[in-house]
Amino acid sequence: MANTAVNPTDSDYKTITEVTSVIDQLVDVNNTYIANLNALQTINGGDINSYVPNFTFANNLSILFNFVLSHLFVIAIDAQQKRVVTLTEDSNVILLAHRYYGLTVDDSTIERFMNQNNIGINEIMNIEKGREIIYYV
């Protein structure tokens, strides 16, 4: 999990929300692991069925966990931030994609804009005043 989290592919972490989602998942897994360790171990380890976790392993895992979280926070700093605006006048997909992302020859910014805002065929030519638009910077 640690290796996958800190070595993303180009399409993995595009926004801060995606990074914080992975951070939340890792924290949950770590908390579950610690709770399970606490449930397994006994007070003094003197019983026949006692379990005492290996300190070196537990310490190294804690160091790894903290390293992964710090690296993910660095990734989050570089990730795109979500912005929401409410349209003050009617518009269309092409104008809005140009305003927030610029236009490209392959129309990838138009497609990106449409996907982020769940724009279907009915709104391509006319996005009404008052609609909230999402874009990332």
Can you offer a commentary on this structure?
α2 packs antiparallel against α3. The mean pLDDT is 89. With 137 residues, the chain is mainly α. It folds into 2 domains: 2-78, no CATH class; 82-136, no CATH class. The chain has 5 helices and 2 strands, in the order αααβααβ. The protein has a two-stranded antiparallel ribbon with strand order 1-2.
Give keywords:
137 residues, two-stranded antiparallel ribbon, 53% helix, mainly alpha
Concise description?
Helix content is 53%, strand content 7%.
Write the layout of secondary structure elements.
Elements: H1 2-6, H2 16-40, H3 55-78, E1 82-86, H4 93-101, H5 108-116, E2 132-136
Antiparallel strand pairs: 1-2
Helix pairs in contact: 2-3, 4-5
- Order of strands side by side in the largest beta sheet? 1-2
Mean pLDDT across residues? 89
Category from helices, strands and their pairing: mainly alpha
Q: Structurally, how many domains make up the residues?
A: 2
Measured between the Cα atoms of the first and last residue, the distance is 28 Å
Rg to the nearest angstrom?
Answer: 23 Å
Indicate the percent of residues in helices: 40-55%
- How many separate helices? 5
> Which stretches of 5+ consecutive residues score pLDDT under 50?
none
* H/E series: HHHEHHE
The rough form would be described as elongated
Major β-sheet profile: 2 strands, antiparallel
Beta content:
5-15%
Number of strands: 2
